[in-house]
Amino acid sequence: MRSKAKTGHLPENAMTPRQAFFDCLHRSPPALFEAALWIAAEHDPAVQPAAILRDVALLQQQVSQAMPIVPMDELGQPLLRRMNDLGFAQDDFTPLRPAAALLDKVLQRKRGQPLAMGLIALELARRLEIPMQGVNFPGHFLLRVPGADHLLDPCGGRRLYPNDCRELLQRQYGPNLTLKSEHLHTAEPRAILQRLSRNLRQLHLSNDEYLAALVDAERVLELGNASAADYLARASLYQRLDCPSAERFDLEHALLLSEDPIQRLRLAERLGHLPPKSVVH
Asked: Where is the Protein SirB1 N-terminal domain (predicted)?
């Protein structure tokens, strides 16, 4: 395939889903929602992002018909409540399945993780010119209207003030984790999509879909700024798939990135039990 010309984009049918995903990220501004659809297309060749984008235009019409006549910066919560009225809600199925994070499935079922609900809300807000941003809050993706003194739960639109955020954090992680300002920062599209990829990696792993989890693990690393935990997650997948050379590569990278002495010791021990590197003559 020829390299992409600097003057424009390759047509979608000339790209792999992964290439189309990064093409969305390289646009100005990045096409966040479409990029998330290409993640779904990577897992299911039947997914057609262009067709889904047209369907979202119909959803946009349904949402806008019942919106109140108020300033645009006051429409964040009404948008989320309208989505809830249309049946969109958090997926409470236990254990969660990958369908809770794959946007095509979430749009069909109207059930998903908070991040998936947030991605749909952000796309509707963009189309309706409602100011809204994503917040990578630990354990529960949240939304913000710039300048507001509260955050919004994408699953229903509940307002969360600092005390509510503190309670949400402690409910998920226990009393030892304190609320920090970094938990409330606006998330850039790349960080949101990396979180989505990590979610899918875990969901596919939990459902014993190791090859699908590997696809997500690779995307996490390609997005950059990967952590020791990201390399360790892919190493564990390679271990399950009996690929010792690839496992060694990721364990060595995790060892380089880790700042935990105990973890570094365990990684070194694990590396010691792998077959030695093969020598190419």
From this structure: 59-197
